[in-house]
C-alpha cells in the first residue's frame, strides 16, 4: 500500500475527504485541521492500495491540490491492519500490475537528469567494459553492465512518449547523447593511457575473442534480447520490483559496445568501431521500442479497467 499526505486549503478539505472516502481501496483516513503552515491549510492522511492510487491522484489533481496544496505518497513496508487488508481486496486488480504514472514520471525525471554523477558512472562502466573487451573477460563485461546507469534516461524517453511530456523527453535524450559522448571520449583517453603503459595493445583487440566477440557482431538476436530486456526493465519500474533491473543490466550490451568502439577507435580499426556502434544503436532502439510499447499497453489496460470499475 501507499501512505498519502495531503495539504489542502481549508475550503477544499471537505471535497478532498469526500474523494478519499469515495475511492475504493482507501483506509486509515485522518484529518488534522489547521496543521499545515507552509502552505497553510489542513493535513489529510490516508492509506491507499497501490492499484487505486493512480485514480485518487488524478482526482486530487483535478481538484487543483497539486497547485494549491501538496500531494505526497510513499510506500508502506509494513501494515498490520484488517482494514488495510480489506482495502487491498476491494481495490480492482493486483498491486504488482498497478502503475502510478505520476510516480513513474517523477522517478524517471530524477534518473534521467544529466549530472556529474551520471556521467561518472557511465564513464566508469565504459572503462570497465574496455578492460573486459581487451582481456576477453565476460565477468568484467557483466560488471560494466551492472554499473551503467543508461536505463534511467531510456525509461525517461519511453515515459515521455507515452505521457506526452516533451520536457522529460528532451532531458532524457540529452542525458543519453551527452552521457555516451562523454563516456566515449573519456574511455578513448583511458585506452590511450593503458596502451602507453603497456596494458592494452592492438593484438589483444584483434585476436580471437570468443567471450566478447558478440559485442561487435550485431544480429537479430541482439535486437530480440534488447526488446526482452526493455520489457523487463519497464515492468520493474512500474511495479516497483527493482530486482528485474539486474536482469536488464546483464542482458544488454550498450555500455560494452560503446567501450569496444572507443578501443577500436584508438587502434584505428574502423570495422570493429562501426559494428560496435551498430550494436549500441540496435540495443538502444530495441529498449526504447519495447519500453514504449509496454507502457502503452499498461496505460490502455489500466484505463479500460478504471472505466469498467467506474461503470460498475
Report low-confidence residues grouped into runs of 5 or more: none
Strand tally: 4
Strand content: 5-15%
Helix content range of the residues, please? 55-70%
Please state how the strands of the largest beta sheet are arranged side by side: 2-3-1-4
Element string (H = helix, E = strand): EHEEHHEHHHHHHHHHHH
Count of helical stretches? 14
End-to-end distance: 23 Å
Tell me about the largest β-sheet. Answer: 4 strands, antiparallel
Mean pLDDT value: 88
- Give the helix/strand class: alpha+beta
The number of distinct structural domains comes to 2
Structure description:
The chain is of the alpha+beta class. The mean pLDDT is 88. The radius of gyration is 24 Å and the shape is elongated. It folds into two domains: 2-98, Alpha-Beta Plaits (2-Layer Sandwich), CATH 3.30.70; 103-301. The chain is 66% helix and 11% strand. It has helices at 13-22, 50-62, 65-68, 82-90, 101-111, 116-135, 138-147, 151-163, 166-196, 202-206, 220-238, 243-249, 254-266, 270-311, and strands spanning 2-8, 26-37, 40-48, 70-75. Helix 11 (220-238) runs antiparallel to helix 12 (243-249) and helix 13 packs antiparallel against helix 14 (270-311). The relative contact order is 0.11. Strand 2 (26-37) and strand 3 form a beta hairpin. It has a four-stranded antiparallel β-sheet.
Task: Put the structure in a nutshell.
This protein is an alpha+beta fold and 312 residues long.
Write the layout of secondary structure elements.
Layout: E1 2-8, H1 13-22, E2 26-37, E3 40-48, H2 50-62, H3 65-68, E4 70-75, H4 82-90, H5 101-111, H6 116-135, H7 138-147, H8 151-163, H9 166-196, H10 202-206, H11 220-238, H12 243-249, H13 254-266, H14 270-311
Antiparallel strand pairs: 1-3, 1-4, 2-3
Helix pairs in contact: 5-8, 6-7, 6-9, 6-13, 8-9, 8-14, 9-13, 11-12, 11-14, 13-14
Amino acid at each position: 500500500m501507499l501512505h498519502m499526505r495531503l495539504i489542502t486549503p481549508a475550503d477544499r478539505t471537505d471535497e478532498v475527504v469526500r474523494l478519499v472516502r469515495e475511492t475504493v481501496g482507501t483506509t486509515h483516513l485522518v484529518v488534522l485541521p489547521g496543521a499545515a503552515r507552509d502552505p497553510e491549510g489542513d493535513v489529510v492522511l490516508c492509506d491507499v492500495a497501490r492499484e487505486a492510487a493512480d485514480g485518487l491522484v488524478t482526482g486530487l489533481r483535478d481538484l487543483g491540490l497539486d497547485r494549491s496544496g501538496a500531494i505526497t505518497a510513499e510506500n508502506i513496508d509494513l501494515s498490520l491492519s484488517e482494514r488495510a487488508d480489506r482495502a487491498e481486496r476491494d481495490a480492482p486488480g493486483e498491486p504488482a500490475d498497478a502503475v502510478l504514472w505520476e510516480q513513474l514520471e517523477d522517478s524517471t525525471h530524477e534518473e534521467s537528469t544529466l549530472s556529474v554523477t551520471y556521467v561518472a558512472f557511465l564513464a566508469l562502466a565504459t572503462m570497465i567494459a574496455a578492460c573486459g573487451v581487451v582481456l576477453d573477460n565476460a565477468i568484467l563485461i557483466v560488471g560494466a553492465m551492472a554499473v551503467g546507469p543508461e536505463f534511467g534516461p531510456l525509461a525517461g524517453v519511453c515515459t515521455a512518449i507515452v505521457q506526452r511530456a516533451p520536457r522529460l523527453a528532451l532531458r532524457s535524450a540529452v542525458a543519453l547523447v551527452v552521457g555516451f559522448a562523454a563516456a566515449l571520449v573519456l574511455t578513448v583517453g583511458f585506452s590511450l593511457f593503458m596502451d602507453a603503459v603497456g596494458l592494452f595493445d592492438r593484438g589483444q583487440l584483434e585476436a580471437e575473442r570468443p567471450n566478447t566477440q558478440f559485442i561487435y557482431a550485431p544480429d537479430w538476436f541482439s535486437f530480440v534480447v534488447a526488446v526482452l530486456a526493455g520489457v523487463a526493465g519497464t515492468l520493474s519500474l512500474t511495479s516497483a520490483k527493482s530486482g528485474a533491473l539486474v536482469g536488464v543490466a546483464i542482458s544488454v550490451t550498450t555500455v560494452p559496445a560503446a567501450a569496444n568502439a572507443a578501443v577500436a577507435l584508438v587502434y584505428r580499426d574502423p570495422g570493429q568501431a562501426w559494428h560496435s556502434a551498430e550494436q549500441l544503436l540496435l540495443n538502444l532502439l530495441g529498449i526504447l521500442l519495447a519500453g514504449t510499447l509496454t507502457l502503452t499497453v499498461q496505460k490502455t489496460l489500466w484505463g479500460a479497467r478504471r472505466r469498467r470499475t467506474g461503470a460498475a
